[in-house]
Amino acid sequence: MRIISGKYKGRKITAPKKLPVRPTTDMSKEALFNILNNHYNFSDLAVVDLFSGTGNIAYEFASRGSEQVTVVDTDLGCIKFIDQTSKSFDFGIDAIKSDVFKFLEKTAIKADIFFADPFYDMPLEDFEKIPDLVFTRELLLEDGMLIIEHSKHTDLSRLAHFSNARKYGGSVFSFFNY
């Protein structure tokens, strides 16, 4: 994977093969950030990356100037890799080892962007819990956005606060906002 834009544009990051992850492809990531670039000034954003895996999305936000980036993942190997990579780039990403749903139930962190990239085969009921918790707990700041990456075989369009979806290959980004 590589950082597409910002201070560390073009830098490659190689994650250990043993991590249980499926990183967002560079093509999909570039398309997502083109959309976000039209809505936000990255240096002003507070971001929470859920099911962060390698930290691919978090690094992109940090490289573009977002200083308040929090990542959440249940895998200790992923958290250690993100910590190590964050320090090598001097990003200051806050990495939290936690079950994402428990984190969302208890956190006081509010953010402009919540990005979730769970396992594509996660049960639909669990996909539905993500926007439910983010919106009922009022974790999203005004004019904020929740983005869930999922398989083209998963349809989240019937959920409350759904705005639109964009498909890139076998991946879909579903956008939610107030």
Automatic annotation (TrEMBL):
<dbReference type="InterPro" id="IPR004398">
    <property type="entry name" value="RNA_MeTrfase_RsmD"/>
</dbReference>
<dbReference type="Pfam" id="PF03602">
    <property type="entry name" value="Cons_hypoth95"/>
</dbReference>
<protein>
    <submittedName>
        <fullName>16S rRNA (Guanine(966)-N(2))-methyltransferase RsmD</fullName>
    </submittedName>
</protein>
<dbReference type="GO" id="GO:0008168">
    <property type="term" value="F:methyltransferase activity"/>
</dbReference>
<dbReference type="GO" id="GO:0031167">
    <property type="term" value="P:rRNA methylation"/>
</dbReference>
<dbReference type="InterPro" id="IPR029063">
    <property type="entry name" value="SAM-dependent_MTases_sf"/>
</dbReference>
<keyword id="KW-0808">Transferase</keyword>
<keyword id="KW-0489">Methyltransferase</keyword>
